[in-house]
Structure to design on (686 residues):
């Protein structure tokens, strides 16, 4: 009899624990970038967008953008492959990027080598940053770095941007590509990745960009770029590992090739400017099952040719029972 | 090698300085004489700098052994043996400095010295200690071909050495190992990508994995390396998505070792295999078991956090991730040295070699 009671107690505890898990019924936040040509389109309101969650039109509660402060995480590949002048350029770029922040914005720096290290945690731009101690050595745990930063939830009333800088080669991560992509589908953050390429590759990228009739944005983001919900545009940039585009795609982020003579600070500034111009659509999903994957389709009601870049969906957060294939 | 390296290391501390040997001429001769003096207790420290490992190898090849100072009371045979030990140990010290970044050059230097070790007859304790230290350098370089070549030379001579048996499998496993060393320059990166594409096209990666599993399974018959051989066989199977086979390979492996690094990795890899089989609760328990052995190890912490983030459970992924970002002690995580294999034994092994220089 005692054994039966104990077994029952364990079962109750397990069920209770399951019921405390977060699920998809909480508010959904979708960052959306709207461009006309190479310029961001400003002045839009929630009424200008139509959002379908698993095919069901949702009531948008807001389309805030500019007024929301930003948390920027710079994720820098400081493995031995970036030692030398590149390291100095990176230090300069970190300082320059911090200088672009507004008083309410915050920045943090995470270094990736074999080991992940938070050089400094989220902080306002004021004050000197401890960059002198940065050195480049060891291998690259890129997917680990992306995973560790993507799992940080966005604080209420703020937006989160992760800007990674890497040569794109991962050598020591315990997080594999498929897990990194799965985490990217669920993160609240927008993830952009800057990848140095050779001069030859940079030229190829420029030509492909011209051929595609768009900016580098429509090149490297590839699968995540939609034109009024009409599917992907652009082609993958040569020389940039395709998996990077697959990781940033569900976050509505971009992969940005960096030419050898191109300023890292300038590219980081472009990333930040682009992010500032994004809208944040908020809604509480209604008429759909909270758990599982949610396809999100966003279109603009306004007439004209716009590039609407947004995450293609999100994972409703409920426990998948053990034994069920994720 | 486009970039020169210049690293100074201080090899131990030894008091009781007496008379240093006469000053030899070349910097290399001077350095090796200093090393010999340090080994003999005539100096407190020895500085070992290397700019180019291949140049160092050529210079050592031209070196007159008589510049290596030895105790004048020794017989010619004793002096010859001590000079051989100093020369080969010194070469290994140099190779170790550059092995992680310039694996091929380090391997050439180790191989050059190895000829003086494996040709010695009869083999003695120094030769055996040197071979084990050399294995650390070569496996630490993660250069599959160099390691395979070395094992092919050394195993016929040291046929009863279990670590060499294990190294046969490691050489095959390292064929598919990621390495930072070979992509340090743009040209090297392009070459590496081309090589990867070629090996993929030819199916060589898959065949190397199959050979690795077979060799590890063979090595697992030897008690002293059974646990690590099983660990590695299962890891290769894991990478081939043969989750059930991997789990079967690891059955009972914990009972065959007390090595905390091997035990940690067994739990970590089991967690990965369980994730592959969608046994998420088992995966979570495996990661927690790994963390019980090495608390705050990044690998197990990150996998646990990712599991919580994707599927939800009581662990808070953000808290776990934040904690690991604030703790970057590289000694915590055996995963980081997994592919470098015996590199983790370098310091104790070279310590044994140095001890035999001091007390021949």
């Amino acid at each position: 009899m005692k054994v039966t009671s104990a077994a029952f107690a364990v079962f109750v505890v397990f069920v209770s624990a399951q019921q405390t898990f977060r699920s998809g019924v909480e508010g959904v936040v979708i960052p959306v970038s709207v461009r006309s040509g190479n310029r961001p389109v400003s002045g839009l309101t929630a009424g200008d967008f139509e959002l379908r969650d698993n095919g069901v039109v949702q009531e948008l509660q807001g389309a805030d953008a500019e007024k929301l402060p930003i948390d920027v995480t710079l994720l820098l590949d400081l493995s031995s492959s970036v030692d030398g002048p590149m390291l100095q350029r990176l230090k300069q770029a970190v300082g320059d990027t911090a200088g672009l922040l507004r008083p309410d914005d915050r920045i943090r720096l995470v270094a990736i080598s074999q080991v992940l290290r938070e050089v400094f945690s989220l902080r306002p731009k004021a004050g000197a940053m401890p960059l002198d101690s940065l050195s480049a050595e060891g291998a690259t745990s890129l997917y680990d770095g992306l995973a560790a930063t993507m799992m940080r939830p966005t604080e209420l009333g703020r937006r989160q941007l992760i800007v990674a800088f890497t040569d794109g080669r991962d050598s020591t991560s315990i997080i594999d590509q498929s897990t990194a992509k799965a985490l990217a589908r669920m993160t609240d953050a927008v993830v952009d990745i800057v990848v140095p390429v050779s001069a030859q590759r940079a030229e190829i990228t420029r030509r492909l960009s011209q051929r595609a009739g768009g900016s580098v944005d429509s090149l490297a983001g590839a699968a995540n770029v939609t034109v009024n919900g009409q599917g992907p545009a652009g082609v993958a940039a040569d020389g940039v590992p395709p998996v990077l585009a697959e990781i940033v795609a569900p976050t509505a982020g971009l992969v940005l090739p960096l030419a050898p003579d191109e300023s890292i600070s300038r590219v980081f500034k472009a990333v930040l400017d682009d992010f500032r111009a994004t809208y944040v659509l908020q809604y509480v999903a209604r008429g759909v099952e909270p758990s599982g994957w949610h396809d999100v389709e966003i279109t603009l009601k306004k007439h004209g040719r716009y590039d609407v870049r947004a995450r293609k969906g999100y994972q409703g957060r409920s426990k998948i029972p053990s034994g069920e294939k994720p | 090698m486009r970039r020169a390296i210049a690293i100074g290391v201080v090899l131990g501390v030894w008091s009781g300085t007496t008379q240093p040997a006469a000053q030899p001429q070349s910097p290399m001769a001077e350095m090796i004489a200093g090393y010999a003096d340090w080994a003999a207790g005539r100096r407190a420290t020895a500085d070992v700098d290397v700019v180019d490992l291949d140049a160092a190898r050529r210079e050592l090849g031209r070196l007159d052994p008589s510049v290596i100072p030895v105790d004048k009371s020794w017989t010619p045979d004793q002096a010859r043996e001590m000079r051989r030990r100093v020369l080969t140990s010194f070469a290994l010290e140099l190779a170790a400095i550059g092995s992680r970044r310039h694996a091929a050059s380090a391997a050439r230097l180790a191989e050059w010295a190895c000829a003086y070790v494996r040709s010695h007859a009869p083999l003695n304790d120094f030769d055996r200690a040197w071979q084990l230290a050399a294995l650390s350098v070569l496996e630490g370089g993660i250069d599959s071909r160099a390691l395979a070549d070395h094992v092919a030379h050394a195993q016929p001579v040291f046929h009863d050495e279990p670590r060499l048996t294990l190294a046969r499998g490691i050489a095959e496993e390292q064929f598919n190992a990621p390495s930072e060393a070979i992509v340090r320059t743009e040209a090297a990166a392009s070459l590496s990508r081309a090589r990867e594409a070629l090996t993929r096209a030819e199916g060589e990666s898959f065949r190397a994995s199959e050979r690795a599993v077979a060799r590890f399974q063979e090595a697992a018959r030897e008690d002293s390396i059974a646990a690590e051989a099983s660990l590695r066989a299962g890891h290769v199977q894991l990478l081939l998505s043969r989750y059930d086979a991997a789990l079967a390979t690891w059955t009972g492996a914990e009972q065959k070792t007390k090595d905390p690094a091997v035990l940690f990795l067994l739990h970590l890899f089991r967690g990965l295999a369980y994730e592959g089989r969608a046994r998420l609760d088992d995966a979570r328990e495996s990661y927690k078991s790994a963390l019980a052995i090495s608390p705050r190890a990044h690998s197990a912490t990150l996998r646990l956090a990712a599991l919580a983030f994707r599927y939800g459970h009581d662990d808070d992924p953000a808290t776990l991730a934040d904690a690991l970002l604030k703790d970057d002690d590289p000694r915590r995580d055996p995963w980081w040295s997994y592919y470098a294999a015996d590199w983790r034994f370098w310091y104790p092994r070279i310590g044994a070699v140095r001890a035999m220089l001091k007390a021949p």
